[in-house]
Amino acid sequence: MRMVDLIEKKRDGHELTTEEMTFIIQGFTDGSLPDYQMSAWAMAVYFQGLTERECADLTMAMVQSGDQIDLSKIEGIKVDKHSTGGVGDTTTLVLGPLVASVGVPVAKMSGRGLGHTGGTVDKLEAVAGFHVEIENEQFIELVNKNKLAVIGQSGNLTPADKKLYALRDVTATVNSMGLIASSIMSKKIAAGADAIVLDVKTGAGAFMKTLEDSEALANAMVQIGNNVGRQTMAVISDMSQPLGFAIGNALEVKEAIDTLKGQGPEDLTELSLTLGSYMVYLAKKASSLDEARARLTQAIQDGSALETFRKFLIAQGGDGSVVDHPEKLPQASFVYELQAKESGYVSEIVADEIGTAAMLLGAGRATKESEIDLAVGLVLRKKIGDYVEQGESLVTIYSNVEDIKAVKEKLYNHISISKERVSKPTLIYKEIV
Ligand code: URA
Ligand code: CA
């Protein structure tokens, strides 16, 4: 096989065979195919697209390019959730204990990463003593015992994806639906998921800004999952404004605790119940989505979801008493209110800009080397559609520095107030089940 022929074949709009897709990914991973040929191929894919079968082949070739996590010693169907990323997205912290409390095994591999706030691991480290540096064996034991454990990213997962993503980044080929979908799905599958629930965000704070693109990505990922034997479901959810109220590490842990107690924000609660129902159903712990939802609602009401969170924290060295005393989480030195300059209805809270404001306070990393401040962040007091009186608080700002002029300015510039009544945005645009 010659790479030049395969580039030509794709350039001219023909479908590559499974053997050809495997040849490309293997050759690129082992270095026998040069970057310039891979770049030309990626550009051909960018213009011609990938068929459903090619996407499935690409995904599995990337899965096989590195280690695959073996979760076979964990009893039950391992369902993983993936979000395409948003602002103040506290769902992972809620979903883990919530679905584990009804018997779904959650074996979560999580990272830190860059962004408006830290990743799941950073957030959990806001709980004193909690750590994810555990051995694989202990990880598996903990999931079998408590149904929930989180381990830091390790091993050599999907090296082909890492290399290809870096190449796409500098050759203007990131934005190809087939390449994005295969990239995301390969990582979930290599991490050991038997079934996958996807939360594809849409709006200003999302990777996909339009509903049309979000829907195309969701469909492409669901097809891949189902074609490679991992049952997959997806929702398309709103990320025009941040999810819930809290954006920040310790602040989101507190928000997750509130939600597990049944006292969380309406949107975060609803999205968690929807995604959680899919997870419970796919794990075969309920025979319908309605039954799954009823079980989760019960787990919140009877306290078992919160108890699962406590046990999980303690099992990984954390102070479990934070679930009763969230004031034990790291606290910021300064608390400010952002007062509304006029009365009216909140009409816009631009998610990505609000996320950047949280990052300016130190809640997230701008570069890999940045230090993260677990205590700081924002809590929205109003969401789109709410009425606010002049002088009333729009946002509470938790800071460890006194001078927050730039943060306030950013917030004022990206929160709009209208004299006319504004309806609440749709939370879930579409469900692909
Ligand atoms: N996120 C990924 O993981 N891969 C892509 O290709 C794009 C976004
Ligand atoms: Ca939140």
UniProtKB/TrEMBL annotation:
Keywords: Glycosyltransferase, Metal-binding, Potassium, Transferase
GO terms of molecular function: 1,4-alpha-oligoglucan phosphorylase activity; deoxyuridine phosphorylase activity; metal ion binding; thymidine phosphorylase activity; uridine phosphorylase activity
Residue runs in coiled coils: none
Keyword Transcription on entry: no
Pfam families named among the record's database cross-references: Glycos_trans_3N, Glycos_transf_3, PYNP_C
Cofactor: K(+)
Catalytic activity as recorded in UniProt: 2'-deoxyuridine + phosphate = 2-deoxy-alpha-D-ribose 1-phosphate + uracil; uridine + phosphate = alpha-D-ribose 1-phosphate + uracil; thymidine + phosphate = 2-deoxy-alpha-D-ribose 1-phosphate + thymine
Alphabetical list of SUPFAM superfamilies matching this protein: Nucleoside phosphorylase/phosphoribosyltransferase catalytic domain (SSF52418), Nucleoside phosphorylase/phosphoribosyltransferase N-terminal domain (SSF47648), Pyrimidine nucleoside phosphorylase C-terminal domain (SSF54680)
Pyrimidine nucleoside phosphorylase C-terminal domain ranges (all copies): 345-418
GO CC annotation terms, alphabetical: cytosol
Enzyme class: transferase
GO BP terms: pyrimidine nucleobase metabolic process; pyrimidine nucleoside metabolic process
UniProt EC number: 2.4.2.2
Function in brief: Catalyzes phosphorolysis of the pyrimidine nucleosides uridine, thymidine and 2'-deoxyuridine with the formation of the corresponding pyrimidine base and ribose-1-phosphate.
Complexes and interactors: Homodimer.
Protein family: Belongs to the thymidine/pyrimidine-nucleoside phosphorylase family.
Protein name: Pyrimidine-nucleoside phosphorylase
Species of the source: Peribacillus asahii
